[in-house]
Amino acid sequence: MEIPKRNDPTDFKQESFEEYYRRFPKELAHIPEDVVKSWMWYHNEQVVVFSKLYNFENWEFELQCFDNEEIMEIKHFDYDLKLLDGKGDEFLKGCLKGYDTADYMLENGTFPCPIIVARNAGKNIHHQRGEGNYMLEPLQLIEGNRRLAYLRAMIRKKFPKLKDSHKVWVVTIRA
Questions:
Q1: Gap between the Cα atoms of 165 and 78, Å rounded
Q2: CA–CA separation, 90 vs 32, rounded Å?
Q3: Which of 2, 24, 26, 56 is the most exposed place for a label (fewest CB within 10 A)?
């Protein structure tokens, strides 16, 4: 089942999350509301394309707490991970002040909302990479690039307000 496209009235105004969520398919009611909001609504065009590759009816979501060591074990493609680590360093140098997510993380030492990772999904193509680029195992980042970048920097630099654990949505993709 495909994810619905947002009904944005103009290029400068998005359909509200509440309106979007009211028409979200009942067959996908197992997808947690905050996953729908932070990924499927916020990154709608990307997820609409992704939903043509995958049947979200076969995805199981489990909210878990990861410690800092587990966070550092989340995989992403090498090129992307290097970019993320660079962004994370900029973040800690104070280059991103005034950005809500950065401000929240500096104050609270964790994510404002959980990132999404796929567990043992190596038989599946990564939605941002396309044909021939399979997800890495055991944990592949699906959504939350900036948040993961910031948290990785906080962990590497032993940021004083860093929390010991962080909420993460872990996805299992059933065939």
A1: 24
A2: 32
A3: 26
